[in-house]
Amino acid sequence: MIENGSGEESRRSVRLIGAPTDYGQDRRGVDMGPSAIRYGGLSDGLANAGVDTQDAGDLLVPRAEERDPEYRTPSEGKARFLRETEDVCGRLSNEVQQSLADGHTPLVLGGDHSIAIGSVAGAAAEADIGAIWFDAHADLNTPTTTPSGNVHGMPLAALLGVDEWAGVDWANAPSLSRENVAIVGLRSVDDDERELLRESEISAYTMSEIDRRGLANVVEEALAVAGNGAEGYHVSLDLDWLDPTIAPGVGTPVRGGVNYREAHHAMEQVAEDGGLRSMEMVEVNPTLDQHNETAELAVELAASAFGKRIL
Known about the structure:
With about 300 residues, this protein is of the alpha/beta class. The protein has a single domain (about 15-305), classed as Arginase, Chain A, CATH 3.40.800.10. The protein has helices at about 35-40, 40-50, 80-100, 115-125, 155-160, 190-200, 205-215, 215-225, 260-275, 295-305; strands at about 1-5, 10, 15-20, 50-60, 105-110, 130-135, 180-185, 205, 235-240, 275-280. Strands 4-3-5-10-9-6-7-8 form an eight-stranded parallel beta sheet, sandwiched between helices. Helix 9 (about 260-275) links the parallel strand 9 (about 235-240) and strand 10. Helix 7 (about 205-215) packs across helix 8 and helix 8 (about 215-225) packs parallel to helix 9 (about 260-275). The model is unreliable at about 1-10 (pLDDT under 50). It is an enzyme of class 3 (hydrolase). Its cofactor is Mn(2+). One of its GO terms (molecular function) is arginase activity. Its EC number is 3.5.3.1.
């Protein structure tokens, strides 16, 4: 529930936006993620959370096989399908901006994590925002540090203008600063990303820290970081944040993630905090899943993030 101008509570309205891309990684099938999540009962799940849902459908995304995957940047590095990613993220940013202007909370369904460039840039276009990255990975590579060239490992670096991403107008989020970014659940970080995290103001919480301090304490701190001086925050939920025993349908699984109850509790904390401005769920790959259980879990977590409770 949200408060309207008269001080009364009204139902939150969520607009679903599908971004069926697999440009950002090299395992096919993640482009079917939006369909799998919808099939998992997303509209009903959100309705049970007391949310009105409007489905804007999917962005039109040409098939990767029809495109040239290699595109070298002006720097020495490379980023695969960068032109295509720019096109999708530009259109997605516009959709997110329009959703907010229409009074809807955008819920973007991926697709691979490269789409975060578009969803966060759109959410940050007219407001100073923070961001919480629930992810096993830091997503802070650049075209010169990436081991793979896959943009799904770069979106946070792009949004923050790290190194050669600086000044790339379609990728940088205009009002997102490092001191308002928290990454929760890290357990797979590349060397260059590790160095950046040690030197920057980004708040990074590993699974080891979660084990020591407890997830609730870490998420509470992350929410404070993202919301400090901001006009709300974006939640980026990569399903590989969860342990692959409960979320097998992801392209880059990493053992040792959060469990079922921890994930729900974190999303419940997001709902209770009340600062959610926009959200995305990414990296659901039904070709790697078992009986659509990862997509159905994504539905459950979205419902928790938007306020579903047992009592």
